[in-house]
Amino acid sequence: MTADQIVKTLQNQKNPKNIAGMARFGIKPKKEPLGIAMPTLRNISKDIKHAHPQSPERHKLALELWKTGIYEARLVAAFIEDPKLIDEKQMENWVADFDNWAICDTVCGSVFDKTSLSFQKALEWTRRNREFEKRAGFTLMAWFAVHDKKAKDSDFYPFLNAIKKEATDERIYVKKAVNWALRQIGKSRNKNLYKLALKTANEIKKMDSKSAKWIASDALRELLSENIVKRINKK
């Protein structure tokens, strides 16, 4: 399967009705999407992996698919890419192309968070000005908390500091990612990080910022819920 063949396969799956639905959820790529459902994209990605079992071949395809600018082709690129073959230049090129929350969250959660640079980029990107680059930093933190079972508590301390520092950003896709990262660190790890997440949330709540107050209140609502408290107490 070549990149052109994959793109043709995707184009044959175009669904205009889904495109309208995507727009309602804020998924508005610069290049008009095809409206293909996620399960279909994952099945296509599995077929590609079967046809190209070698990582270098899939890496080449991933780069070519990303260059098409097609939303669905870029998702497939993330699904077939080998995180071990991603270097810093590729991460920077891809994050600069993020133009909606869905591509940001999917790429970060499917492949970026498994690279050797995930921790470094999480912190670095939260200091960026562009909305989806900044979101990517906090999205990586959220996925890092869920996926990296070997991470130490101390790995998350800089994340909590960054969350507090950027909590006043009023942009919707940034503040939602800040909130997401805070909640995941609090509920996905252990009692120590749970307590630190609560402490951070309470400190953020005192800030003179609508965004900060929303981030804190929403995080505390979940972290103090009965289900989360029970789960943490079992750890």
Explain this structure to me?
This protein has 235 residues and is an all-alpha fold. It has 2 domains: 1-85, no CATH class; 103-235, Serine Threonine Protein Phosphatase 5, Tetratricopeptide repeat, CATH 1.25.40. 71% of the residues lie in helices and 0% in strands. It is built from 14 helices and no strands. It has helices at residues 3-11, 16-24, 38-51, 55-67, 71-80, 88-97, 101-110, 118-125, 131-147, 153-165, 172-188, 191-205, 210-223, 226-234. Helix 1 packs across helix 4, helix 10 (153-165) runs antiparallel to helix 11 (172-188) and helix 11 packs parallel to helix 13. The radius of gyration is 19 Å and the shape is globular. It starts with a helix and ends with a helix. The model has no long low-confidence stretch (mean pLDDT 96).
Secondary structure layout plus pairing:
Elements: H1 3-11, H2 16-24, H3 38-51, H4 55-67, H5 71-80, H6 88-97, H7 101-110, H8 118-125, H9 131-147, H10 153-165, H11 172-188, H12 191-205, H13 210-223, H14 226-234
Helix pairs in contact: 1-4, 3-5, 4-5, 5-7, 7-9, 8-9, 9-11, 10-11, 10-12, 11-12, 11-13, 12-13
